[in-house]
Write a structure and sequence with these properties.
alpha/beta; 10 strands; 4-stranded mixed beta sheet
């Protein structure tokens, strides 16, 4: 990665971490995927119960694989015939892992969900929520974060899941009411009532969608 981009990401991350702190959330900066994995494993004690949404960024830094192979109680919903049971178990987990669709450079997180299991767990339930966020997700303000979530993340995810929505065909949001829409619930996290419950690792890389 170009040295100027690295420097820009470092400075932007410092601003974003300060914003998170002002909102009762914790922020960390990782210069690489490998460093992000190390920070995450340092934050999650062995023996912890862990669940997650469908965060691609969690997989991309190798965190889900490391937890499955380690001394953790990883609740893998893909291994459950009853997916609802696995989703409900997430609310009592020690850690819930996620990425975000977008966030602002002053620490506001934006997430869109179809089934709402991810946004509901972010809002309440698990003792800790740990976000893995590539610097490509950081936006200037809430409007640009919302536009990114709806016009970048949502269309790619509908295509990834093979859903029949207007955005999957055209690549941009139509504010649809399609039966397949994944924009059912939109969660804006601007403050955490519980200090330190939400932790964000910003990664100097392009992660997720």
């Amino acid at each position: 990665m170009d040295a100027n981009i690295i420097k820009r990401n470092e400075l932007l991350a410092q601003k974003t971490i300060a914003g998170l702190k002002s909102r009762n959330m914790e922020g960390y900066y990782a210069a690489s995927k490998e460093e992000a994995l190390k920070i995450a494993l340092d934050l999650i004690p062995e023996g912890s119960s862990i669940s997650m949404g469908g965060g691609m960024s969690v997989h991309e830094i190798g965190l889900s694989g490391a937890l499955k192979a380690g001394n953790y109680n990883f609740i893998d919903r893909d291994a459950y015939e009853d997916k609802r049971q696995a989703m409900l178990m997430a609310y009592d987990a020690d850690f819930f892992l996620s990425s975000c669709n977008a966030m602002t450079d002053d620490g506001i997180l934006v997430n869109i969900d179809g089934n709402a299991n991810r946004v509901s767990a972010i809002a309440q339930g698990p003792k800790h929520v740990l976000f893995i966020v590539g610097m490509n997700k950081v936006c200037n303000d809430i409007d640009s974060a919302m536009k990114r979530a709806r016009n970048v993340a949502a269309p790619i995810n509908t295509q990834r899941f093979g859903l029949e929505t207007p955005c999957s065909k055209k690549g941009t949001c139509f504010n649809c009411k399609s039966p397949d829409t994944i924009c059912c619930q939109i969660l804006i996290t601007r403050f955490s009532r519980h200090e330190g419950r939400i932790k964000v690792i910003l990664v100097n890389d392009n992660l997720g969608f």
